[in-house]
Specification:
Layout: E1 2-7, E2 12-18, E3 35-41, H1 45-53, E4 60-66, H2 75-87, E5 95-100, H3 102-114, E6 120-125, H4 130-133, E7 138-143, E8 146-153, E9 158-162, H5 171-188, H6 190-197, H7 206-226, H8 241-251, H9 258-276, H10 283-292, H11 304-311, E10 322-329, E11 332-338, H12 340-355
Parallel strand pairs: 2-9, 3-4, 3-5, 5-6
Antiparallel strand pairs: 1-2, 7-8, 10-11
The protein binds nicotinamide-adenine-dinucleotide (NAD), ligand LNCXM5UN and zinc ion.
The ligand O=C(O)C(=O)C[C@@H](O)[C@H](O)[C@H](O)COP(=O)(O)O binds at residues 132, 136, 138, 147-148, 180, 230, 234, 237-238, 241, 315.
């Protein structure tokens, strides 16, 4: 079992990574609670919700099980979960437990941030991707016009990552989660990037996976501790997301998984960076790896102007000027403002490059 502490502006919380720790939840909670609401989804609940409930024999425990998938991060679901919390009689001393991937984590965290102006919640991530979403306190729902446009910074009281739950993930979700690990490696750690590029992610052992997750989480935790509210270095965690989020919104939420969209966004970032800084960084090796691991990476027939418009709803945009996180090299991210024409030109040349791959 490994523990990593993260200090936020309101409190310090632990990320605990290990096998079977979903059965020891009480030992990781900061206090006792008057009641508990577990929020999960239709794929995760049948697998793990009873394990979570078995930790609480004395408390009143309620549960809300949501449809699986990105469309659940909506205003309607957010409102309905608040209704469930009110009907269950939750009070300011209640706890919300987010049991699931990033969708459940982001939504449940935002409910916790807003219910009675904020109550405690913990994250129990069950996807590889959620090593990222469960840490750092970004909680949100989507708007049709853009990803995560309605949300808050609201750190959890604990993150309990039982890696045993990852054994039931599909090949697609393994792929999706590894995209954010590649992102963290590109931001901060050449050696980690090299290691990932040697990895066949569908054959990874439990030990290797846990070690990759631990490396990724440490990169994320260090950044969010330094810049919780994203006024500086936290923007680096958005590598690949300016295009990634635009693709998710433009194609319709859930068409690509978040990680699939980020993977394309990372390739685009490398394409722009290599052109702007006139050097090879890693686009060739990344494209090979994405192919070997069956990532979808063609932009299809997407309208470049429509993508540009969606890219403008990125939270890094100020005065309608798009800012992208680029790489001067692996481990050396920078934030650069690009003109609309530059974005259109890069989208066009990127599209042409992908067609020949
Ligand atoms: N807050 C942040 O900092 C942050 C960071 C990264 C991503 N995100 C958000 O996270 C979301 C994506 O998260 P995700 O990829 O975990 O998606 P997800 O929550 O939709 O989970 C993916 C799929 O796997 C299923 N699933 C989850 N755990 C499972 C398990 N153990 N076994 C079998 N099936 C399981 C889910 O039901 C779902 O169908 C996006 O909305 C993204 O914007 C947020
Ligand atoms: O934690 C962060 O900061 C990130 O940017 C992590 C991203 O992987 C994540 O997808 C996040 O939700 C994106 O944030 P947003 O502010 O662009 O919505
Ligand atoms: Zn992301």
């Amino acid at each position: 079992m490994e523990e990593i502490a993260v200090t936020s502006s309101s409190h310090t919380y632990k990320i605990v990574i290990g096998e079977n720790i979903r059965f020891q939840l009480k030992s990781f909670l900061p206090k006792t609670y008057s009641s508990i609401l577990i929020i999960s989804d239709e794929s995760v609940a049948p697998l793990y919700i009873n394990d979570i409930r078995s930790n609480f024999t004395e408390e009143q425990v309620f549960q809300t099980v949501l449809p699986s998938g990105e469309q659940t991060k909506s205003m309607d679901t957010f409102y309905n979960v608040h209704t469930d919390a009110i009907n269950a009689g939750l009070d300011r001393n209640s706890l919300i437990i987010a049991l699931g991937g990033g969708v459940v984590g982001d939504l449940a965290g935002f409910v916790a941030a807003t219910f009675m102006r904020g109550i405690d919640y913990i994250q129990i991530p069950t996807t590889i991707l959620a090593h990222d979403s469960s840490v750092g306190g970004k909680v949100a729902i989507n708007h049709k016009l853009g990803k995560n446009l309605i949300g808050s910074f609201y750190p959890p009281r604990a993150v309990i990552y039982d890696v045993e739950t990852l054994q039931t993930l599909s090949a697609r979700e393994i792929r999706s989660g590894y995209a954010e690990l590649v992102k963290e490696a590109l931001i901060a750690d050449q050696e980690f990037f090299n290691l990932l590029l040697k990895t066949d992610i569908q054959q990874v052992t439990a030990e290797e996976l846990q070690s990759h997750l631990s490396l990724g989480i440490k990169i994320k935790a260090n950044i969010v501790q330094e810049d919780e509210m994203e006024s500086g270095v936290r923007m680096y965690l958005n590598l690949g997301h300016t295009l990634g989020h635009a693709l998710e919104a433009e194609l319709g939420y859930g068409t690509l998984t978040h990680g699939e969209a980020v993977a394309i966004g990372l390739l685009f970032t490398l394409h722009v960076s290599e052109n702007m800084f006139s050097k090879q960084i890693a686009s060739h090796s990344l494209i090979q790896w994405l192919k070997e691991n069956n990532y979808p990476f063609k932009l299809q027939q997407l309208d470049e102007h429509a993508l540009l418009l969606k890219m403008k709803s990125d939270k890094k945009t100020v005065n309608s000027k798009i800012k992208m996180v680029l790489l001067e090299d692996i481990g050396s991210p920078v934030v650069k403002e690009l003109t609309d024409q530059q974005i259109l030109d890069f989208l066009h040349s990127f599209n042409r490059k992908l067609v020949t791959e």
